[in-house]
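User:
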Amino acid sequence: MRICVVALGKIGLPLAVQFARKGHQVIGADVDERVVADVNAGREPFPGEADLGLYLGETVGAGLLSATTDTTAAVAESDAVVVVVPLFVDETGTPDFGWMDAATRSIAAGLRRGTLVSYETTLPVGTTRDRWAPMLEEGSGLTAGGDFHVVFSPERVLTGRVFADLRRYPKLVGGIDGDSALHGVDFYEQVLDFDERPDMTRPNGVWDLGSAEAAELAKLAETTYRDVNIGLANQFARYADKVGVDVNEVIEACNTQPYSHIHKPGIAVGGHCIPVYPRMYLWNDPDATVVRSARDANTAMPEYAVGLLADAYGDLTGAGVLVLGAAYRGGVKETAFSGVFPAVEALRERGAVPYVSDPMYTVAELQALGLPPHRDEPVTAAIVQADHAAYRALGPADLPGVKVLVDGRRITEPDRWAGVERIVIGGPTRPPAEGSPAR
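Assistant: Predicted structure:
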């Protein structure tokens, strides 16, 4: 097949490479000229994706993958179009369709009869049928479901391990009509391979969910579940702090029972997905009180962590406080909705002088993000915001002068912090009660 992938970001480019590795002719379309130049040269435009550099070089070198800034021309040459353009929501949960609208109009201008258009960007329920299909019809003069086919098929991968996740998880597809669904299933069966999953009741592979709306809801539901679960874990952690128990031990005990799957609490929920898609769900279903409460609980955690620091340290006015980790999670160079931003703001509101360091970011990069980089200024307190593996080896010698450490991710080793008050979210924050086993 001839395939066009629209938007060569951290999901779109690995997808394009995957399709090319299956022997198809792929052209990636992106508005960023630098990204297009990098891809055409076989260079990774961004670091951190396992095997991407190797596979990109192989597919470009074999003439199976190229890139362009002309989306319309690329679509005109393609049998299938996969759209992975970002969709953002504001703090109220209102989607900003600007980039997606522009991309869809460019696709429509090059659309031919018989082409499959698959949207993989996470969307509010109903968007594929009610917004994109009419826009494609208007721009092409063709009929959706008759002249061309439209499906929604959510990406279900994590950056850093996209190729492994593409094999591991079923590919969900929902069409605007039965014929579109058939074309969508056939397409993905030709471009993906799947691991055996004996833990599932259905064979791993491409699953037709029956409608675009069902596929849209599946993506929102699986991500919102994680946010709600983390919100519950954070509520348990805050209560554990009040009563002086270790919430991790409680959660470990609970999860030995097969119907309990409590997630880990922590200082923040970041990334492009978990903090965003629940808001998108709420845009569809504003009466979802459980979803809203969980989102509020998770949003409050950076301020809560700073409050734990202040309770232990005392007045933070003028105190130098180092926030360890700008990334939203360990090992990934990405700051989307990272807890670093609200943590820095909460420190400033308490009069502290915050600094940020991260082994994955240079001083210039932190400055470009609006974060105050640490240049060895004296600090007397620290907060671990990202669970970078390197932080396991940290000790007082690495942070001279630090009297209080709040580890928001439980990544540091407690035995290394003798002489420093080390606090974790979810306790224990006080000695065991008399008669309890010492820990």
